[in-house]
Design brief:
Two copies of one chain form a homodimer. By secondary structure, chain A is of the alpha/beta class. Chain A is 43% helix and 21% strand. In chain A, a hairpin with a 2-residue loop joins strand 5 and strand 6. In chain A, helix 5 runs antiparallel to helix 6. In chain A, 35% of the residues are buried. Chains A and B meet through strand 8, strand 9 and helix 7 of A and strand 8, strand 9 and helix 7 of B.
Chain lengths: 198, 198
């Protein structure tokens, strides 16, 4: 058995990351979606351990000190981070791990874990992104403008990513993400130990 | 539109390369299978321009002199080569090109075209390869022993390849080859020019 792949996914709020990831988790065995830790309070309907691991600020900062995060970042006054231990356990069992994280966190992962593959999910256009954000009916126009502004800023980081997936049609975007996962499993560096006679 | 990907496939005689490739060509648009040139005489049923471009030795050597081959090699006294022009035309039209070539040719392509992706297709075991070669009923036991010996020698080159596909079940092997093609199309370096706002 070879080690799993670490797959990092970023993309603007509203681009449909969670839906694309959910589609891939449905159809691919041996893939684990990493649940982040956060100090942000749970929103209505959010479940501890499912949406996030909700922990307090003191504990988060202690864990930072102990080097327990593979990556962490502050965003709008709250911490968000990924537990190194859980990720490593899955990878060692040959399970691929998907992280859905911001561009800062993605850069940290790539620094600490160069073999991680990073994917940036983009909408077909900014106009379509604005349309999707409005359709969610959760944000004010002002908040939507802020999200679009942030999305434009994050686009500057795209050249650092290994892959771009365009979420125009969900099926196609999921197929592309799945293709990256499958191709990673075929890498010579991962498979060569399994091959008789090499 | 971005340039197509150059995909190089090698693997032992009898491993099922052609069947896996045919399966992928059926289900993937914009993929072109490159037909090699050879000085070997056509076998019964082989069609010029379909199985190979059959050319004579003098012409082959003239084309070598003119640098018209992306790669070429001699094998059992005959030349085999890939026309650079045809490959480049397809890639420039955004079409992915698959080459099915020997390990020497693959090394030449990788030297001349570092962005090419190379895939080595292996059987689940040497025992299974021997079984498949016998099932074809085209070779003597002596010839089969020679092919197996050659396969073992070629295995030394596997570490130079980007990917390993194990042809145990055809569907799974075809899915893996398809995944490499799709993942290549998503590479940031290929897609970034298509993205608005970068």
């Amino acid at each position: 058995m070879s080690q799993g792949s670490l797959i990092v996914i970023s993309g603007a709020s509203g681009v449909g990351k969670s839906t694309v990831i959910a589609k891939v988790l449905e159809s691919c065995a041996d893939v684990y979606f990493s649940v982040s830790c956060t100090t942000r309070p749970p929103r209505a309907g959010e479940v501890d351990g499912v949406n996030y691991h909700f922990i307090n600020r003191v504990e988060f900062e202690e864990r930072i000190q102990r080097g327990e995060f593979l990556e962490y970042a502050q965003y709008v006054g709250n911490y968000y981070g990924t537990s190194r231990k859980i990720v490593e356990e899955q990878l060692d069992r040959g399970i691929d791990v998907i992280l859905d994280i911001e561009v800062q966190g993605a850069a940290q992962v790539k620094d600490n874990w160069p073999e991680a593959r990073t994917i940036f999910i983009v909408p077909p256009s900014f106009e379509e992104l604005a349309h999707r954000l409005r359709a969610r009916k959760t944000d004010s126009e002002e908040k939507i403008a802020g999200r679009l502004q942030r999305a434009r800023e994050e686009y500057r980081e795209i050249p650092r990513y290994d892959y771009i997936v365009i979420n125009d049609e969900l099926e196609k975007a999921a197929e592309e993400l799945r293709a990256v996962l499958i191709a990673e499993r075929c890498r010579t560096i991962k498979r060569i130990a399994l091959i008789e006679g090499v």
